[in-house]
Design a protein that fits this description.
Elements lengths: L1 H11 L5 E2 L11 H12 L15 H15 L8 E4 L1 H13 L5 E6 L4 H8 L3 E6 L8 H7 L4 E7 L11 H18 L4 E5 L22 E6 L12 E5 L6 H14 L7 H10 L8 H18 L11 E2 L8 H10 L2 E2 L1 E2 L9 E4 L4 H6 L1 H14 L2
Parallel strand pairs: 1-10, 3-4, 3-5, 5-6, 6-7
Antiparallel strand pairs: 2-8, 7-8, 9-12, 11-12
Amino acid sequence: MFENGRELKLKYGEENVFDFSLGNPDVAPPKKFFDIYSKITQNTKTSDHSYMPNAGYISTREKLANYLSKIYNKKISANNLILTSGAAGAINIALKSILNPEDEIIIISPFFPEYIFYIDNHNGQPIIVDSDENFDLNIENIEKKITQKTKGIIINSPNNPTGKVYSKNKLSDLSKLLEKYEKKYNHPIYIISDEPYRNIVYDKIEIPSLLELHPNTIIANSYSKELSIPGERIGYALINPDCAGKDILFDALVLCNRICGFVNAPATIQRVLEKLIEDYEAVNIKLYEVRRNKICDMLKEIGYELTKPAGAFYLFPKSPIEDDIEFINILLKENVLCVPGSGFGRKGYFRIAYCVDEKIIEKSYNGFKNAFLSAKNKNG
């Protein structure tokens, strides 16, 4: 879709192509980020760009641990934290640490497509479980898929591609289920919680702390979205202080950060994060909320079926026809770029990334309407 978009923009002009294909945030990072970045890069010495412990600078981890203790309502130390190359780095080192060949990791459909590849990277088996009709956790479906080889479950809330936020009650039910099978099989079943959109939520929704709900939890987080710096590749893996064998797991994560090829998170952005976290400021979430409301209202007016997202910056409407890939091609003829739901493990839907300028949303109205009518006519 990215390549299609590039070609269309060259052919028709960028202003006439409506690209909702990538979750690439366009909201500017906070001014404080630029101020700190500028100051740090103007006052550096050679050692500032050298190797450091694979877990990251201890001073950055200590500052971040103090900050996260308040967020997750749990006393966190630097030895619960590994700074990583984004949330993707955190998930990969977690999987490398806990998986033996052919061990299983449950993922919830619809899911971020790269989870499949991350699990495959470490010789694991992805086990796909459908969410319910509201994109919520289906505890009964999950239980049916747990086996002796289940080592963990990846959850993503707020979710990409649906924007769904899992409630504390649902997460508590999931924890109880996993604890039941941990006792049965006599080994931990980890929740790997992928949380890059944790601070992008709307309507005063609060995200529960999984560290309070399930001891064997590893949080994978990134500052790509909440600071609008995806190219800087900074995130962390956070081990629940109550996790079984937490010291051994920490050592494993540190080793895997190296042997997976990440070595350490980028040095300069670690130092920026250390200063920024002292008086933390994220991007202006209100801008995304305005866009969410605008595109939801617009598509509902046209006739699309959709669930208003509670977080992140994605919308996952139903395709007007059963074949979502065919519908994406119909949209493409209108210079509207979206992604088929099939790629996220849920046919019959498509994803819109509304982290774009409001004018793009407004100007895409005719394209979405023409595609909707064309698909309906085609469907008879």
